[in-house]
Specification:
This protein is 34% helix and 23% strand. The protein is α/β, with parallel strands linked by helices. Helix 5 links the parallel strand 6 and strand 7. Helix 1 packs across helix 3.
Amino acid sequence: MNNQTEKTKAIQADFNEFLETLAARVDRLPPVKLSIQTKNIKGKERATLAIQFGDPHAGNEPTGVLKRRINNYIKDIIIFVKKTTLIYQYDEVIVNVLGDLVEGEEIYQGQRYEILYNLWEQITISSEFFNFFIRELRAFFPSDTPIKVKVIPGNHGRFNLEKHSKTINADIIAMTISKAYCESNFKNVEFEITTDELLTYKMKGNTILITHGGGKNKLLIPAQDLTPAAQSKLLRLIMTTNADAIICGHGHNQKILRLQNTPIYINGRFGAITSLEKDRLSFNTRSTQFLLVVPESGLECGIYHTVQIKTS
């Protein structure tokens, strides 16, 4: 019993030391200079800002490229918020982590020859950059505005490809590390992490369902048009969850689809994946991630635009 206690203490000490090392590395990342405190102004409609963070695929590109995309994404968020706060007062921020934080290893044949970092390095990179992302959001929004992080795994994080392990996933490991770091170091930040493919929650009366879009149950959401098979699966999913909106990743091409008046937001990517994409997008330092404004009167969407999607 004493040996087990000592072993547990040793493991905890090693983990604490790891967190301290990670914290030091995050603190060395340059802050985004545009970060400023927003002000709550009376008379504006209360709203939730839903930020998507999906498909960075850390491991298949130099970390400097991913860092530039994250920095530019933060700047895009700040510009978007400063414009929309003319109308809305954001009383909460939700960050939907949509999976494929890592590129993985041997997700497809020959992948090991394309990646730049092994899986454990990818986990560290993902956690470090996500901590930086949350740090900048926390510095920008007022401290009394909660930041809620919702996490689902992607298919590239699977450790056991043949059995499609749901309980051992590199995305979940990276976000568990980030949860420990962020909740300890930043005020009013909380994580909800699931190993399931689906997560539902309420946002201003809307039922939001997030999923990666591809996994063990083959819930593959096409980036262009919904096939009859996909429509059938999604209809059952909408009926069983009463979802008002679905947010997913996996397709890498940003698009909004509809199924029986339910919007499906297919999130974009942080980086180029295929060889062709890398050739064409090697200098692209912009991510394509949806920003959703959810006021009490309905659901809006905007990244380079803001349009009315649904009214309650």
